[in-house]
C-alpha cells in the first residue's frame, strides 16, 4: 500500500507517490486542466492512480499564509480534499505546504532545468515535497513513541 501526495492548484494538480515502506516520495505527474472548476477528469485520473498503485491514504498540501492563517485557497483545497475523500473512500490529511513551490523551483534550478520547462515539473516536485513532509512526520511520531516506551 502507498500514500498519494497532491499539490492542488487552480489549473494543475501535482501528484507524488510514496514507496510501500513509506520512506520515499517520488514525483509522478502533473494533471493539467483548462479551467479552474473543470475537475471531472482530474478526479478520474486521481481515482485511476489510486487503484493502480493501491493507495490507502491521500495527503494534500494546505497553502497557509505566512502568518499561519487560512485564506481563500485553503478553502478551495479543503473542498477538493472533501471531494477526493467522498469519491475514493480514503482518508485525507493536510500538510502545511508553505514555500514548497519555491523549494521545488530551487530543485529544478539546481538541476539546470530551463525556466520555460519548469512548469511541466514544478507541481509534481511540490507534491513530492508535501508527501515527504508527511512521511517524515510519521517517522518522527514513530521515534517519539519508541522513546516514550523505552522510558516506561
What's the SSE blueprint?
Blueprint: E1 2-8, E2 12-18, E3 25-32, H1 40-52, E4 55-62, H2 72-88, E5 92-96, H3 100-110, H4 115-118, H5 122-151
Parallel strand pairs: 1-4, 4-5
Antiparallel strand pairs: 1-2, 2-3
Helix pairs in contact: 1-2, 3-5
How is the main sheet built?
5 strands, mixed
Can you tell me the CATH architecture? 2-Layer Sandwich
> How is the CATH topology named?
Nucleotidyltransferase, domain 5
For the largest sheet, list the strands in their spatial order: 3-2-1-4-5
The average pLDDT is 86
Rough outline: globular
Q: Give the CATH superfamily.
A: YqgF/RNase H-like domain
Helices, by number, come to 5
**How do the helices and strands follow one another from N- to C-terminus?**
EEEHEHEHHH
- Per DSSP E runs of 2 or more residues, the count of β-strands stands at 5
Distance between the termini: 32 Å
Low-confidence stretches: none
Helix percent reads: 40-55%
Radius of gyration, in Å, reads 16 Å
- What's the CATH class, please? Alpha Beta
Q: Approximately what portion of the residues adopt beta-strand conformation?
A: 15-25%
Q: Number of folding domains? A: 1
Name the structural class: alpha/beta
Amino acid at each position: 500500500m502507498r500514500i498519494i501526495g497532491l499539490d492542488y492548484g487552480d489549473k494543475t494538480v501535482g501528484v507524488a507517490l510514496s514507496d510501500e515502506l513509506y520512506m520515499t516520495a517520488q514525483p509522478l505527474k502533473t494533471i493539467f486542466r483548462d479551467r479552474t472548476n473543470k475537475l471531472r477528469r482530474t478526479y478520474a485520473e486521481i481515482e485511476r492512480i489510486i487503484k493502480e498503485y493501491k493507495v490507502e491514504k491521500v495527503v494534500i498540501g494546505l497553502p497557509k499564509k505566512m502568518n499561519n492563517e487560512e485564506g481563500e485557497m485553503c478553502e478551495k483545497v479543503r473542498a477538493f480534499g472533501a471531494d477526493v475523500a467522498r469519491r475514493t473512500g480514503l482518508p485525507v490529511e493536510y500538510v502545511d505546504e508553505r514555500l514548497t513551490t519555491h523549494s521545488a523551483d530551487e530543485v529544478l534550478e539546481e538541476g539546470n532545468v530551463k525556466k520555460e520547462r519548469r512548469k511541466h515539473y514544478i507541481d509534481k516536485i511540490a507534491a513530492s515535497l508535501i508527501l515527504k513532509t508527511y512521511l517524515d512526520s510519521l517517522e518522527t511520531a514513530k521515534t517519539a513513541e519508541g522513546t516514550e516506551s523505552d522510558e516506561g
